[in-house]
Amino acid sequence: MKNAIRISCSRHNLKVVRDFVSAYLATYGLSDLQLNQIILAVDEVVANLIIHANHEDESQFLDLRLSVEQQVFEIEIQDDSKSSYQPSLYKEPDLQEHIRIGKKGGVGMTLVNRIMDRVEFVTIGSHNVCRLYKRIV
Amino acid sequence: MKINQQTTENTLTLSLDGELDASSSVLLDSELTKPEVLDYKKVLIDCQRLNYISSAGLGVFISHLQRFQDAGVKLVFFNMQEKVHNVFEILGLDALMTIVPSEADATAL
Questions:
Q1: Would the pTM of this model clear 0.80, i.e. be above it?
Q2: Which residues form the STAS domain (chain B) (predicted)?
Protein backbone atom coordinates (compact mmCIF):
# COMPACT_ATOMS: atom_id res chain seq x y z
CA MET A 1 0.00 0.00 0.00
CA LYS A 2 1.33 3.43 -0.95
CA ASN A 3 2.55 5.21 2.17
CA ALA A 4 3.76 8.55 0.77
CA ILE A 5 2.20 11.27 -1.32
CA ARG A 6 3.05 14.78 -2.49
CA ILE A 7 0.29 17.31 -3.07
CA SER A 8 0.26 20.90 -4.24
CA CYS A 9 -1.21 23.52 -1.91
CA SER A 10 -4.76 23.60 -3.25
CA ARG A 11 -7.75 22.94 -1.01
CA HIS A 12 -9.09 20.67 -3.75
CA ASN A 13 -6.39 18.20 -2.69
CA LEU A 14 -7.96 17.71 0.76
CA LYS A 15 -10.15 14.96 -0.70
CA VAL A 16 -7.03 13.35 -2.21
CA VAL A 17 -5.40 13.29 1.23
CA ARG A 18 -8.50 11.86 2.93
CA ASP A 19 -8.74 9.08 0.34
CA PHE A 20 -5.01 8.37 0.71
CA VAL A 21 -5.27 7.97 4.51
CA SER A 22 -8.46 5.94 4.20
CA ALA A 23 -6.92 3.54 1.67
CA TYR A 24 -3.78 3.10 3.77
CA LEU A 25 -5.76 2.25 6.91
CA ALA A 26 -8.29 0.02 5.14
CA THR A 27 -6.57 -3.19 6.18
CA TYR A 28 -6.32 -2.34 9.87
CA GLY A 29 -9.96 -3.04 10.72
CA LEU A 30 -10.68 0.27 12.44
CA SER A 31 -14.20 1.23 13.43
CA ASP A 32 -15.94 3.82 11.27
CA LEU A 33 -15.65 6.29 14.14
CA GLN A 34 -11.92 5.89 14.69
CA LEU A 35 -11.13 5.89 10.98
CA ASN A 36 -13.16 9.07 10.50
CA GLN A 37 -11.45 10.73 13.48
CA ILE A 38 -7.96 10.02 12.13
CA ILE A 39 -8.92 11.20 8.64
CA LEU A 40 -10.41 14.35 10.19
CA ALA A 41 -7.29 15.16 12.23
CA VAL A 42 -5.08 14.79 9.16
CA ASP A 43 -7.50 16.88 7.07
CA GLU A 44 -7.46 19.68 9.66
CA VAL A 45 -3.66 19.93 9.75
CA VAL A 46 -3.34 19.69 5.97
CA ALA A 47 -6.05 22.34 5.46
CA ASN A 48 -4.23 24.68 7.85
CA LEU A 49 -0.94 24.15 6.02
CA ILE A 50 -2.53 24.69 2.61
CA ILE A 51 -4.66 27.72 3.51
CA HIS A 52 -2.84 29.54 6.32
CA ALA A 53 0.83 28.53 6.00
CA ASN A 54 1.06 28.36 2.21
CA HIS A 55 -1.80 30.71 1.25
CA GLU A 56 -3.10 28.20 -1.33
CA ASP A 57 -0.01 28.75 -3.50
CA GLU A 58 -0.16 25.77 -5.86
CA SER A 59 3.54 26.06 -6.64
CA GLN A 60 4.15 24.92 -3.05
CA PHE A 61 3.91 21.31 -1.93
CA LEU A 62 3.20 19.15 1.10
CA ASP A 63 4.87 15.77 1.55
CA LEU A 64 2.94 13.21 3.59
CA ARG A 65 4.22 9.88 4.86
CA LEU A 66 2.20 7.31 6.78
CA SER A 67 3.21 4.37 8.94
CA VAL A 68 1.79 2.01 11.53
CA GLU A 69 4.22 0.51 14.01
CA GLN A 70 3.24 -1.44 17.10
CA GLN A 71 -0.38 -0.38 16.60
CA VAL A 72 0.49 3.30 16.52
CA PHE A 73 -0.52 5.25 13.43
CA GLU A 74 1.88 8.04 12.52
CA ILE A 75 1.65 10.67 9.85
CA GLU A 76 4.45 13.06 9.03
CA ILE A 77 3.63 16.16 7.00
CA GLN A 78 6.42 18.38 5.69
CA ASP A 79 6.40 21.75 4.00
CA ASP A 80 8.66 24.74 3.46
CA SER A 81 6.31 27.58 4.33
CA LYS A 82 7.73 30.63 6.03
CA SER A 83 5.05 30.74 8.73
CA SER A 84 5.16 27.71 10.97
CA TYR A 85 2.42 26.82 13.46
CA GLN A 86 3.27 27.68 17.07
CA PRO A 87 1.57 25.13 19.36
CA SER A 88 2.52 27.20 22.41
CA LEU A 89 0.08 29.90 21.24
CA TYR A 90 -2.85 27.47 21.19
CA LYS A 91 -5.88 28.46 23.27
CA GLU A 92 -8.96 26.36 23.95
CA PRO A 93 -11.83 27.99 22.06
CA ASP A 94 -14.91 29.33 23.83
CA LEU A 95 -17.59 27.97 21.52
CA GLN A 96 -20.39 30.06 22.98
CA GLU A 97 -18.29 33.15 22.24
CA HIS A 98 -17.60 31.87 18.71
CA ILE A 99 -21.37 31.55 18.20
CA ARG A 100 -22.05 34.98 19.71
CA ILE A 101 -19.63 36.77 17.39
CA GLY A 102 -20.23 34.51 14.38
CA LYS A 103 -16.66 33.28 14.18
CA LYS A 104 -16.06 30.84 11.35
CA GLY A 105 -12.69 29.34 12.18
CA GLY A 106 -10.53 28.44 15.12
CA VAL A 107 -11.67 24.95 16.14
CA GLY A 108 -9.62 22.77 13.79
CA MET A 109 -6.61 22.34 16.07
CA THR A 110 -8.97 21.57 18.96
CA LEU A 111 -10.25 18.60 17.01
CA VAL A 112 -6.68 17.51 16.24
CA ASN A 113 -5.57 17.81 19.87
CA ARG A 114 -8.62 15.93 21.18
CA ILE A 115 -8.39 13.13 18.61
CA MET A 116 -4.67 12.40 18.40
CA ASP A 117 -2.52 10.99 21.20
CA ARG A 118 0.46 13.17 20.36
CA VAL A 119 0.93 16.21 18.11
CA GLU A 120 4.36 17.61 17.29
CA PHE A 121 5.45 20.60 15.23
CA VAL A 122 9.14 21.18 14.61
CA THR A 123 10.96 23.61 12.35
CA ILE A 124 14.43 22.92 11.04
CA GLY A 125 15.67 25.97 9.17
CA SER A 126 12.93 26.72 6.65
CA HIS A 127 11.62 23.16 6.80
CA ASN A 128 8.50 22.44 8.87
CA VAL A 129 7.53 18.99 10.06
CA CYS A 130 4.25 18.04 11.73
CA ARG A 131 3.84 14.56 13.22
CA LEU A 132 0.58 13.13 14.50
CA TYR A 133 0.35 9.87 16.46
CA LYS A 134 -2.67 7.75 17.36
CA ARG A 135 -2.86 4.29 18.90
CA ILE A 136 -5.24 2.23 16.79
CA VAL A 137 -7.28 -0.67 18.15
CA MET B 1 -20.92 18.34 -2.11
CA LYS B 2 -24.41 18.88 -3.44
CA ILE B 3 -27.09 20.85 -1.64
CA ASN B 4 -30.73 20.18 -2.49
CA GLN B 5 -33.42 22.52 -1.29
CA GLN B 6 -37.06 22.00 -0.39
CA THR B 7 -39.34 24.69 0.92
CA THR B 8 -42.72 24.98 2.53
CA GLU B 9 -44.29 28.20 3.76
CA ASN B 10 -42.35 28.15 7.04
CA THR B 11 -39.53 25.70 6.49
CA LEU B 12 -36.43 25.54 4.34
CA THR B 13 -34.84 22.08 4.20
CA LEU B 14 -31.30 21.77 2.91
CA SER B 15 -30.23 18.20 2.12
CA LEU B 16 -26.46 17.87 2.17
CA ASP B 17 -24.96 15.20 -0.07
CA GLY B 18 -21.25 14.43 0.08
CA GLU B 19 -18.33 15.77 2.09
CA LEU B 20 -18.24 19.14 3.82
CA ASP B 21 -14.63 20.28 4.06
CA ALA B 22 -12.58 23.47 3.65
CA SER B 23 -13.22 23.33 -0.08
CA SER B 24 -16.94 22.56 -0.25
CA SER B 25 -18.06 24.53 2.81
CA VAL B 26 -17.88 27.73 0.74
CA LEU B 27 -20.98 26.55 -1.15
CA LEU B 28 -22.94 25.94 2.06
CA ASP B 29 -21.86 29.29 3.46
CA SER B 30 -23.17 31.13 0.42
CA GLU B 31 -26.52 29.31 0.72
CA LEU B 32 -26.93 30.18 4.40
CA THR B 33 -25.82 33.77 3.83
CA LYS B 34 -28.72 34.51 1.45
CA PRO B 35 -31.03 37.04 3.12
CA GLU B 36 -34.18 35.09 2.18
CA VAL B 37 -33.09 32.24 4.49
CA LEU B 38 -34.20 34.44 7.37
CA ASP B 39 -37.75 34.55 5.97
CA TYR B 40 -38.36 31.00 7.22
CA LYS B 41 -39.20 29.95 10.78
CA LYS B 42 -37.08 26.83 10.52
CA VAL B 43 -34.03 25.78 8.55
CA LEU B 44 -33.70 22.00 8.62
CA ILE B 45 -30.42 20.35 7.65
CA ASP B 46 -30.91 16.81 6.35
CA CYS B 47 -27.61 15.02 7.03
CA GLN B 48 -28.53 11.56 5.75
CA ARG B 49 -26.11 11.78 2.83
CA LEU B 50 -23.54 13.92 4.62
CA ASN B 51 -20.59 11.52 4.81
CA TYR B 52 -17.99 13.81 6.32
CA ILE B 53 -17.64 17.14 8.09
CA SER B 54 -14.51 19.04 9.08
CA SER B 55 -14.07 22.16 11.19
CA ALA B 56 -14.68 24.30 8.11
CA GLY B 57 -18.18 22.85 7.79
CA LEU B 58 -18.83 23.18 11.50
CA GLY B 59 -17.56 26.76 11.30
CA VAL B 60 -20.21 27.64 8.73
CA PHE B 61 -22.98 26.53 11.10
CA ILE B 62 -21.31 28.17 14.13
CA SER B 63 -20.98 31.46 12.26
CA HIS B 64 -24.67 31.62 11.26
CA LEU B 65 -26.28 30.34 14.46
CA GLN B 66 -26.51 33.68 16.29
CA ARG B 67 -27.79 35.44 13.16
CA PHE B 68 -30.51 32.79 12.87
CA GLN B 69 -31.38 33.05 16.57
CA ASP B 70 -31.57 36.84 16.38
CA ALA B 71 -34.01 36.52 13.46
CA GLY B 72 -36.11 33.88 15.26
CA VAL B 73 -35.10 31.10 12.85
CA LYS B 74 -34.57 27.62 14.30
CA LEU B 75 -31.63 25.63 12.90
CA VAL B 76 -32.25 21.89 13.25
CA PHE B 77 -30.13 18.94 12.10
CA PHE B 78 -31.62 15.50 11.49
CA ASN B 79 -30.69 12.08 10.03
CA MET B 80 -27.08 12.55 11.13
CA GLN B 81 -24.70 9.63 10.66
CA GLU B 82 -22.94 8.46 13.81
CA LYS B 83 -19.45 9.40 12.59
CA VAL B 84 -20.64 12.92 11.73
CA HIS B 85 -22.45 13.27 15.07
CA ASN B 86 -19.23 12.18 16.76
CA VAL B 87 -17.42 15.23 15.33
CA PHE B 88 -20.04 17.54 16.87
CA GLU B 89 -19.59 15.63 20.16
CA ILE B 90 -15.80 15.94 20.22
CA LEU B 91 -16.20 19.74 20.31
CA GLY B 92 -19.31 19.76 22.52
CA LEU B 93 -21.35 21.31 19.72
CA ASP B 94 -24.07 18.68 20.18
CA ALA B 95 -25.02 20.55 23.37
CA LEU B 96 -25.17 23.94 21.62
CA MET B 97 -27.02 22.97 18.45
CA THR B 98 -30.33 21.19 17.91
CA ILE B 99 -29.77 17.69 16.55
CA VAL B 100 -32.70 15.27 16.37
CA PRO B 101 -32.94 11.73 14.99
CA SER B 102 -35.52 12.09 12.22
CA GLU B 103 -37.29 14.50 9.92
CA ALA B 104 -40.50 13.86 11.86
CA ASP B 105 -38.75 15.00 15.06
CA ALA B 106 -37.40 18.08 13.28
CA THR B 107 -40.78 18.98 11.86
CA ALA B 108 -42.45 18.55 15.24
CA LEU B 109 -40.20 21.11 16.95
A1: yes
A2: 1-109
